[in-house]
Amino acid sequence: MIGRLNHVAIAVPDLAAASAIYRDTLGAKVSAPVPMPAHGVTTVFIELPNTKIELLHPLGDNSPIAAFLARNASGGIHHVCYEVDDILAARDKLKAQGMRVLGDGEPKIGAHDKPVLFLHPKDFCGTLVEIEQA
Ligand code: CO
Hints:
This protein has helices at 15-25, 66-71, 87-96; strands at residues 2-11, 29-30, 34-36, 41-47, 52-58, 76-84, 108-109, 115-119, 129-133. The relative contact order is 0.21. The longest helix is centred in the N-terminal third of the chain and has 11 residues, at 15-25. Strands 1, 2, 3, 4, 5, 6, 7, 8 and 9 form a nine-stranded mixed beta sheet that branches. Helix content is 20%, strand content 37%. The protein binds cobalt (II) ion.
């Protein structure tokens, strides 16, 4: 079921400072900030040879990452995203195995214009997992 690692998402308190670390210190290709009001975040995309890093910063009053940053003041890994060939089949198979899908269980369009779902961290080794239609 599980395919490529699509990205690792890191919540950061200072998007410009985090972008500079990846661009200037680590020498990565770093995008300009992209506001995503529907997701309550501003995202910076970092392309690595084999995967992506996404820097997330809260946008708006009800950002889903605000509480995470309140607990992790210097930032931290927020979720990992794995690709699946068929997101609905993956969802149904995971639910049949007792895994919890967050929200209403219907895929939403994610940062790459593809359907995504989030899975409960307590079911996946303490890590919030995003699955994305490949
Ligand atoms: Co993500």
